[in-house]
Design goal:
207 residues; mainly alpha
C-alpha cells in the first residue's frame, strides 16, 4: 500500500507506522532471507539496513513524531462536522504550549531557539488562516469562563485578551450594521461576560 502525496499528514502517517514496526524491520534486515535478497539489490539493501539499525535515526523519528503530535491531534480534532469553531483559538494556544514542553525537554536550550522557529512558523500559519469569526466564537464559548479556568493565574479571560477583543469587535461590526441591533448585541455580550463574576465586571467594549 502506498500513501498518496496529497493525503492528510502522509509523512507523519508513514513515520508513525515505521515506529510501530521498528522491531520487525530490524529483525528483517538481520535474517537469512534478507541476505539472499540483498545479493541482487546490494546498494539499496545496504542503505536500508544502515538506516534500520541506526539508533540515532530512530531517535530523530521519535522526536519528530513527539513535537508534531500536538499539531496532528489538533487537525484531527477539527477535521469533523461537529460545531467546534469556538475551540479553535484555544486549541492553537494549547498546541503551541504542548510543543514547547516537548522541544524544551529534548533540546535543553535556555534560549529556545528551535522552539521559537517552530512557533514562528505556526503563528504565521495561524495569522494567515484565522478570521474574526474564530475569535468571536471563542469569546462567546461558556467553556472558557468556568470557575476552574478563572482560578488559573496563567489564563486570560477571552474578553481581556487584546487579540480576541479586537477580533470579536470586528466580527460584530460586520454582522450587525444596524446601530440599534448592534447596541443590543453589545449589551447582551457585556452581560454574558460580566454575569456571575465571569468577566469580573469588565466591559468588553470599553476600548
Amino acid at each position: 500500500m502506498q500513501v498518496a502525496e496529497t493525503r492528510f499528514a502522509s509523512h507523519i502517517i508513514v513515520l508513525t507506522r515505521l515506529m510501530q514496526v521498528k522491531e520487525s524491520l530490524q529483525s528483517m534486515v538481520c535474517s537469512s532471507l534478507w541476505n539472499q535478497w540483498r545479493q541482487s539489490q546490494t546498494e539499496r539493501a545496504q542503505a536500508v539496513k544502515r538506516l534500520v539499525v541506526d539508533d540515532e535515526w530512530w531517535d530523530k523519528v521519535e522526536y519528530l513524531l513527539a513535537f508534531t503530535k500536538p499539531i496532528v491531534d489538533l487537525i484531527r480534532m477539527f477535521d469533523t462536522d461537529k460545531p467546534n469553531l469556538g475551540e479553535v483559538y484555544e486549541g492553537i494556544d494549547s498546541m503551541i504550549e504542548k510543543i514547547r514542553v516537548v522541544i524544551n525537554a529534548k533540546e535543553q536550550d535556555p534560549n529556545e531557539v528551535f522552539y521559537k522557529e517552530v512557533k514562528d512558523i505556526l503563528t504565521k500559519r495561524w495569522n494567515k488562516m484565522t478570521t474574526s469569526l474564530h475569535l468571536l466564537a471563542y469569546a462567546v464559548n461558556p467553556k472558557y469562563y468556568s470557575a476552574e479556568l478563572l482560578n488559573d493565574p496563567e489564563r486570560t479571560l477571552p474578553n481581556n485578551d487584546p487579540e480576541v477583543s479586537q477580533g470579536y469587535k470586528k466580527a460584530l461590526r460586520k454582522l450587525f450594521v444596524d446601530p440599534d441591533i448592534a447596541y443590543m448585541i453589545r449589551e447582551e455580550f457585556s452581560h454574558f461576560v460580566g454575569s456571575e463574576g465571569l468577566g469580573a465586571g469588565n466591559d468588553p467594549f470599553s476600548s
